Each structure stands twice: as C-alpha cells, then as structure tokens.
Amino acid sequence: MNQTAERADFDLIASWVQPGERVLDLGCSDGSLLKRLIEERGAQGYGVELEDSEVLAAIGNGINVIQGNLEQGLAGFDDGTFDHVVLSRTLQTVRHTERILREMLRVGREAVVSFPNFAYWENRLAVMGGRMPVSEDLPYEWFDTPNLRFFTLLDFESLCNSLGLVIRERQVLDEAGRLVLEEPNFLGSLAVYRLGR
Amino acid sequence: MRLFLDLEMSGIGIVSAQRAHFTQPLKLKGGSVLPAFELVYETYGTLNAAKSNAILVCHALSGNHHLAGHTADNPANIGWWDNIIGPGRPLDTDRFFVVGVNNLGGCHGSTGPASTNPATDKPWGADFPVVTVEDWVESQARLADQLGIDAWAAVMGGSLGGMQALQWSLSFPERIRHALVIAAAPKLSAENIAFNEVARQAILTDPDFHGGHFYEHGVLPLRGLRLARMLGHITYLSDNQMAEKFGRRLRPGAGSYGFDVEFEIESYLRYQGDKFAGVFDANTYLRMTRALDYFDPALDFEDDLARALARARAKFLIVAFSTDWRFSPARSRELVHAMVHNGQAVAYAEIDSVHGHDSFLMDEPHYHAIIDTYLKRATP
What is this model's ipTM? Predict the structure, then answer.
C-alpha cells in the first residue's frame, strides 16, 4: 500500500478524533492507526483483528487488540460505547455489509468508513480495456483479492440512504493521497466518510 | 544420555523449594480462621533492586509451586510450566523474577488437609476449611510482603490459575501491573460445576475416604481420586484431539468381550487416573474444585461483571483456545467485553489449537509468541 496515501487516509481520521475520545478500529491490522490516535490525539483506542500475525503485531505495539471476526458482528460490545468506530479500507472485504454498518452505529456515535472507489477513472479505464483494475487502492489481482464487494461512491451513498444513515462528511482522495474536490466519483480513488444516525 | 537430554530440555536447571511461615491469623472467606500457615514456593531469576520485576504464576487444580527446572534428586521431575519459563523463554528469567507457590489447602508442602491441626495434633483431614480464590490471593499477598514485593510486574495463570490472576487485580488493584488470564472464565457454568460434583462424589463415596479422615485409617481413597481424574481428563481434551490421538484403536490382545482395557482411550484414562491418585490428596482435590465453583466476582454486583471489574487498575492479556470447551473462548470474551465497557486496558488473543483446555500448557509457537511479545512490553 502506498505510504503517502495511507497517511492521507489516517490524517483525515486523526483530524476527526478529539482528545480523550474512545475509538474502535475494526480490522485494525498491527494497530498503526490506533497507535497514532493514542499518541497524537490522546484517544482511548481498541481494535478488532482476525489475523494471528496482525494480532501479535498489535500486541507488540501495545494496542488493546481484540481477536475476532467482523462477520460475526460486534456482539458483546455494548451500545454507544465508542465515540468513533473506524472501518478503514475493510468494508469491501466484509460479506455482511449492512449488518456491519448497523453494528458500527449501534456501538458508536459515529462510523468512519473508508473504501476504494471502483468508479475511479483508472479503474474504469482498466475495465474498458477488458481487464480488472489493479491500483494503489485496489492492489490485488482478481484471483488473490480479499475483496468481496466492488462498489462506488454513488453505490455506497445509495445504501446509506436506504439504511437511514446520515452522511456527516465525505472526503475523497486520489491515488497520491491528495484531496479531490471535483468529480469525486470519477477522480477519487479512496473515499472516507463520517456517518451518523 | 537420558540425564543429559533432560538437563538440556530444562532451561532453568536445578531448583529447590523454599518455605515461608506466616504467624498472623488468616481470616477465610468461609468464616473460619487459620491461626498460622506455611506456603511452599520456588523462584527463578533474580529480583532486581527496585523489586519491580516479579511475576507470580498461579497454579490450577492439580498444579503446584514447581513451575520450572528440575529437582536435584530427580532430573525427570521437571516443573509443569517449564516450557514457558527460563532464559530467553516468554517468562524470561534473565529479565523477570518468577515465583511459583503451592496454594493453601494444597498437597505439595503448603498448609493443607494433610498438615497437622494444631488444635488436635492430628491431620486436619475433613476439618481443613474450604478455601477460595480470594483466600489464595490474600495468602499470596502475605508471601509478596515477605519477599518485599510491593507490586507484581505481572500475575499469570491458566484455568483456575487465571481466576487467581483476575482476583489479584480486584483484591489488590495497586499491587499488580499486568494480569495474564489464560483459558479461564469469570465464573463456572452449571455444566462446569456438574463435572466437579461428579468428581467430588467419586471421592466422597469411596469407602476409603472415611469422611475425609482417611489419614488416621492408614488408607487412601484411590478409587475415588482415580475416577475424579479420569473424568477431568475427558474434559481437558478436545473431541477432535481424542479422535486423532486414540480414535477407536484397540489395545494389543483386545477382543475378549469383557470389561478389561480394550480401547486405547481406556488405557490412557486409567493410566492418568492411577498416576494422579498415587500422588495427589483427595481432600485437596475436593477443595480445589470447590474454589472453582465458588469463584464469581460479579455475585456481589448483581451479576454485572463490568461493575465487578471496575476497580481493577492492571492491564490485561486474556487468552483463550479454540477447542477449549471447559472454558470456551466465549467465556473469555465475557471478561474482554466487560473490560472494554469499563475502558480498561485489555488485549485478547484466541489461539487455534487442537488440545482443548490443556492447550494452555502446550508449547505452541504462536501462543508463546503472544505471551512473549506482551511481556516484552511489560517493562519491569
């Protein structure tokens, strides 16, 4: 994954977290984002991660990591425990899309969701050329991708609408991690949303 | 050659037990008072000048103070958790001072049912009080006082030992920096208590038990203890592991259509039962299982586990094993979620393992890496 783009994603999320707020990072990997939110923003963080190697790395980073499978929902986490529930570059790998979005806003006041935009112009070009896209934000081949869902900004917003989720803020980044201000569904490679109820 | 191999397997080398005397009476949760008591313990590594690098390892039902290394008289008498303790191992004795203690009521040297009751000059037997997890923690705190340890860097244990680590965080929030609670639960389920009750009935109904005063009769309730241990072993293994290890395999010469040992699993259980009955005390077994049954920190908090745990100040590592059905991962997650609710520091690892409840004793690389990595951050 591109370091610049990754930082840009995290930059936005970090700017939305206030000191002392409680954050749950779903699919937290080695806990890099949480580490940053704790160190730079004084947040109180927990992460959920399935992979053994990532759980081990997160423990090495001193993160409150909880090993578990997002497909089983967030059972056990109490309603309204968190200020922000983050799902960074992970929604496209989740089978139970609607359930995880509802669960995020059950346990948290705000859901922060980032995902690769399948309608990014380079992705469109790849498909026009007859091939599945491989890019900074969609870095896998079709045969080894963990991604299950391929969707666009418009698709996601339409789902939010039908689930009654309120979009509080949307930021869109290009492959270099720069903010995209115009034609986001065409020029944006990665989208970051803040959702509420 | 055999000797050499054993020495090589044990990272600690020769160890010897020590004995601590306590003359201040100990008031037990059940209401009785022990006027004085002794605890037998072993230590590994060196206590640093600040006395800040001590780790207490609590034992489970059948364990004792002999965690690691081997005794001078018997190179085969290797401690029960040797694979995790020693130079360069997860409980690294180059960094930490590790303490193992035989619990009160035990049968490996600490004051217990086979000790002499000062009031009668005879063995306590049935009159030895029922001790609880809270009582053990209280007695272990007295040992910490004697060793000059104000606060443990960590308290760690598996199963019933994990419950003690948890209780430490509640009884003495300021005296424990990390609690490693492995293959444990916040309390037993009805099914758990049911298994314990069958084990106890096996002992209590053995004619050689004599109401707990068998010492005076010069006999041991071996049959009852053996049955209790056989039942226990069934619950410590996973179904898959039992199928894989024994399956329906027959013993050589089987096929007698009788009731002698026919299947390998029967042979295994009988061997484990006999081995245990020869070395363990029936009165201790009764008390260890009762301590498990009674443990329920949420009881005084209207079953609200989060409220019960709220006073803990320690950081927690909770570990569970996929095939452990005696203390399943779901039970560990109850602890985790209560701690998250409270905003307490907790990490949780769920280890894929075929060994059922016994997994916590196994030398599984990922499991040991989790403990190792966690403790590396727990700087003394």
Answer: 0.93
